[in-house]
């Protein structure tokens, strides 16, 4: 007997089993398959539509762009919201707001003590930026020897490693804070980011009638002894897309203030001469509850 109605087929797919498998994976897969069966039936999805969607998914994976679609469809922000709701449910105090990692982090950037230039080889590509501050605990005490991993796009909105025209680790560095938790770096104010045109991602966004722009931002992954690693971003004020981010990742607590400085001798070691823009920002880390929370692993390392 192998004649099924759709609901009989679904029941069979989800009940089929020759060994225990993993209960959680089985339950989640069953739900996802059931939801997709229902979607196909309700919208009367044609074979052509179904197979072109599968082809699109294959191309999306081949282009290594799954992480752009997850951000654009809100999943990355959803995970942040749920983590914070879990913290609040446990009455766990929050530090600096989290913001999504995005798909463009690269581990292992060069490490410097207290200060660094991110913009070597990028002179004149934008307004000179000095960003400085401290890494603190929730108690306001500095976190000595914390590591601030920072990365941003180049003047064309592209990220090194993913854009082969840039040198390795261009605009990516790690800074170890001093005994008082201080860090500082020099770079330039980056522009916003846009999803690559003529890509599987832009195809879907065109069909959805959506844009694929993010406002100007700088990414951080901050970690320190006995502290929970923090993945966040800061946003540059004044950007058109600040309230219309395709990744839904901007947050009020992360929009920095820009301070125009005409002259200062404080940053000679960073080669700063003439006028520049200064941003002051302290990162506040939660206490860790266990060892794994302290590890500044990107989502890909964690997922692996
Ligand atoms: Fe980014």
What does this structure look like?
This protein is an alpha/beta fold and 304 residues long. It has two domains: 6-65, no CATH class; 69-302, Protocatechuate 3,4-Dioxygenase, subunit A. It has eight helices and 13 strands. The protein has helices spanning 6-15, 23-42, 47-62, 66-72, 75-89, 200-208, 291-294, 299-303; strands at residues 111-113, 115-117, 128-137, 147-151, 172-176, 182-188, 193-194, 213-214, 217-223, 230-235, 259-261, 276-280, 283-285. The strands form three sheets. Strands 2, 3, 6, 11, 12 and 13 form a six-stranded mixed β-sheet that branches. Strands 1-5-4-9-10 form a five-stranded mixed β-sheet, with no helix packed on it. A two-stranded antiparallel ribbon has the order 7-8. It starts with 5 loop residues before the first helix and ends with a helix. The model has no long low-confidence stretch (mean pLDDT 95). Bound molecules: fe (ii) ion (FE2). The site of fe (ii) ion (FE2) has 5 residues, from strand 9. Fe (ii) ion binds next to strand 9.
């Amino acid at each position: 007997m192998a004649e099924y109605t759709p609901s009989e087929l679904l029941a069979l797919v989800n009940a089929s089993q020759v060994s225990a498998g993993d209960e959680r994976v089985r339950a989640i897969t069953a739900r996802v398959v059931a939801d997709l069966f229902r979607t196909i039936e309700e919208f009367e999805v044609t074979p052509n539509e179904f197979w072109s969607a599968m082809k699109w998914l294959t191309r999306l994976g081949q282009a290594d762009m799954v992480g752009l679609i997850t951000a654009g469809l809100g999943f990355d922000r959803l995970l942040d919201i749920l983590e914070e709701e879990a913290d609040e449910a446990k009455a766990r105090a929050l530090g600096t707001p989290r913001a999504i990692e995005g798909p463009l982090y690269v581990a292992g950037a060069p490490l410097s003590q207290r200060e660094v230039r991110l913009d070597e080889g990028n002179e004149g590509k934008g307004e000179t930026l000095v960003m400085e501050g401290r890494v603190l605990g929730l108690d306001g005490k500095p976190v000595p020897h914390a590591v601030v991993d920072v990365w941003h796009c180049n003047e064309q909105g592209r990220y090194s490693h993913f854009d082969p025209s840039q040198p390795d680790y261009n605009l990516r560095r790690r800074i170890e804070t001093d005994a008082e938790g201080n860090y500082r770096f020099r770079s330039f104010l980056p522009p916003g980011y846009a999803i690559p045109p003529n890509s599987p991602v832009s195809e879907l966004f065109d069909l959805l009638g959506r844009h694929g722009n993010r406002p100007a931002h700088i990414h951080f992954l901050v970690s320190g002894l006995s502290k929970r690693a923090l993945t966040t971003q800061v946003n540059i004020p004044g950007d058109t897309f600040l309230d219309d981010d395709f990744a839904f990742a901007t947050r009020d607590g992360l929009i920095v203030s820009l301070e125009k400085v005409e002259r200062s001798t404080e940053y000679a070691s960073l080669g700063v001469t003439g006028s520049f823009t200064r941003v002051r920002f302290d990162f506040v880390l939660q206490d860790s509850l266990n060892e794994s929370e302290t590890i500044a692993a990107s989502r890909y390392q964690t997922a692996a």
